[in-house]
Structure formats: C-alpha cells, structure tokens
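Suppose you are handed a protein chain with no further information: no name, no annotation, nothing but its sequence. What can you learn? This example shows the usual starting point.
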Amino acid sequence: DELRNKANQIWNTILSLETDKYDYEQRHMNQDYEFKELNERQKIQLRNKAVKKGLDPESFTGSHPPKIRMFSKYERRTDTRTYGDRKKLYEGGCEVMRSELLESLWKDKLNEFSKRPKARLPKWYGERPGKKAGDPETPEGEEDGVAAEEELEEEEEEEEEEEEEEEEEEEE
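A reasonable first move is to predict its three-dimensional structure. Written in structure tokens, the prediction is:
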C-alpha cells in the first residue's frame, strides 16, 4: 500500500512537471513569434525613417548606426548627395555625373557670354594702327569691320544665286 501510494505520488509529480514543461514550451514559442513580429515592425519603421531622411533603407536596421559619409577624406565636409546619387556613382555614374556637370557649366558660361553686349572697337584718334601708307581711310561707323563683312557676304550670296539661275536656264 505504501509503495503504491509512493508510486502514485511520484507519478503525479512527474505528470504535473510534464504539463508545466509543455505549458512553458508553448509560452516560449508564442513569445518567440511575438518577438519576431515586433522586430519586423521595428525594422519597417526604421527603414521608413531612413528613406525619409534620404539614407540607405538598410542603414538603421543594422547593428551599427549609419556611417557619416564624408565628401572627401581631406575636407571635413559631409556628403549632401542623396542615396540615389551615390548609388549612381558606383554604377559607373561618376563619368556620367562629371559630363552632366561639365555640360551644365558650359551652358551657364554660354548663356553669360551670349548676354554680354557686343563690344565695339574703340575709335582711334589720328592714324589707325596697322594702316599702310596707300590704304584708303575707313569710313565712319565701320571701325569694327562688321558692316563691310556683311556687304561682302551679301554680294557673294547674290553671285551664287545668279550662278544657280544661269545653270537652271542652261538645263532647260
């Protein structure tokens, strides 16, 4: 009788321990699942935060904070380019960005140059430089020679038109 009571008592203890073990295992699995879910939510929030700041989406989700990118290792200036611009650089975009920069600079300089007024040459008092002894005087207002050049071009165009008309007449 005593042995049977002792065996039942031990059996009951084993049964309660096994049920407790099962309950704790289930609780542990549920906590693991919740922990993973919370981690995923946190990662999504940090990704959104990084994208909002213009950084790499994975920069806040790692175990270390994002590095401060420097523009040059010699200048203490932070890099203000966006993640997309930096990504372009590593895809062979350095040459592309350089050409875009040069193109924009060239256009700016061209605009500045074209806005500049056409400077007239100064009027000379006395004899103009480079004048030979037998050359005729330059008429007033043609110091820069632009008007004379325009007249020559007009004459050449007229001659070409006349030649074309003569060729057409000969063909007929």
